[in-house]
Amino acid sequence: MKKWIRNGTVVTASDTYQADILIDREKVVAIGSNLDGKDAEVIDATGYYVFPGGIDPHTHLDMPFGGTVTSDNFYTGTKAAAFGGTTSIIDFCLTNKGEPLHSSISTWHEKARGKAVIDYGFHLMVSNANDQVLEELGAVVRNEGITSLKVFMAYKNVLMADDETLFKTLVRAKELGALVQVHAENGDVLDYLIKQAIAKGQTDPVYHAYTRPPEAEGEATGRAIALTALADAQLYVVHVSCAEAVRRIAEAREKGWNVYGETCPQYLLLDITDLQKPGFEGAKYVWSPPLREKWNQDVLWSALKNGILQTVGSDHCSFNFSGQKELGLGDFTKIPNGGPIIEDRMRLLFSEGVAKDKISLNQFVDMTSTKVAKLFGMFPQKGTIAVGSDADIVLFDPTVKCTISVETHHMNVDYNPFEGMVVNGDIISVLSRGSFVIRNQQFVGQAGAGRFVKRSTFARP
């Protein structure tokens, strides 16, 4: 059935204007006034912003880590994402050394199949760059539509790759047109600092931050950038948390290098004092990189406003406090790293960014949707409201307030790191390819309705 969105304020990365939108067969077919909405269902958007659906470039659903598995799977995670205005995610597909890449990709397809309620794609982890892997990457990028590769510079003896692997991946990515992502922390240094802390009996959650200093993030970011320049490739630094990393990215971009950066709401709004909460409460805030000193927040906001950082992902990696985070009682190294962010990413960025004049309304759309689509080969199918684009649309009421709480969120986890925060603005309805997933703040979607998105190769935005 056709849908006719009327009387809303359309907001894209470049424009804000009053217009109606006509949707037919999953696509936007007309934008303007005096549209022919005959036989269409009328959706009144009076007083609402009409945004392109959010794209979360950084999620971990149904992912094994630290002896357990994230508490959100592709059903609960994508359902929560939809409640938060996100209509597409790109999840991380982990690989195992010695196994074909396609085996891991098949595993991740199986995790999502029949569960995802919104569209999704995959990033592919590279931990070993031998001849077989480098050859197989060709088929992955060209045939599978997985055009972004992830290299961990941390988690020694678990996920971490060495510099040779990173460099070979960058060289191959240049040949294939893939975008390489790095988790930038110096894993060797962290390993040493962590062992020293444990030997001294420093086991509380806050030592997770003390053993992962910002200097180690800055160094790894700079090293990854140097290798990218040497390979003449393209780099995307995930979850940037501190001034040291921002400075390295800014320097690279001033030189015209193909380097991009992402931060997350947790680094914009929370700080190291959350890890210092009494008892074991700080474990709720253990993720990597760790929360930093509060003054870093101003640096990150400025970097977003000035285009040094381009996107805001959630790094959603949810573990229950009870039974999962508690695995690290008495030893912070055993606390599963990650937090539940997917549902609150967009409302937090609007409330704390747009409503407080730290970023513009159009920048909000750009960093939560458009720039992600451009960097990761989804534009213009996704990431904008334009004739011919997928009808992934969010109706947003900027006048209401809501309180973030575990009592009302839809993530499958027993706490919320932003508990009690009152935010300005909320998501009212969400359409994915023209069909309602959220309607008047009620879930009306279907498990399995989400489709895998084959993405095009990297093109400089």
Automatic annotation (TrEMBL):
Q: Tell me which InterPro entries the record gives.
A: Amidohydro-rel, Hydantoinase/dihydroPyrase, Metal-dep_hydrolase_composite, Metal_Hydrolase, Metallo-dep_Hydrolases_sf
Q: Where is the Amidohydrolase-related domain?
A: 49-435
Q: Posttranslational modification, per the record?
A: Carbamylation allows a single lysine to coordinate two divalent metal cations.
Any one GO molecular-function label of the UniProt entry:
metal ion binding
Q: Which cofactor does it need?
A: Zn(2+)
For this UniProt record, the keywords arranged alphabetically read as follows: Hydrolase, Metal-binding
Q: What class does this enzyme belong to in the EC scheme?
A: hydrolase
- In the Enzyme Commission scheme, what number(s) does this protein have? 3.5.2.2
Q: Which family does it belong to?
A: Belongs to the metallo-dependent hydrolases superfamily. Hydantoinase/dihydropyrimidinase family.
State the PANTHER family in the record: COLLAPSIN RESPONSE MEDIATOR PROTEIN (PTHR11647:SF1), HYDRANTOINASE/DIHYDROPYRIMIDINASE FAMILY MEMBER (PTHR11647)
In its UniProt entry, what is this protein called?
Dihydropyrimidinase
What is the name of the gene encoding this protein? hydA
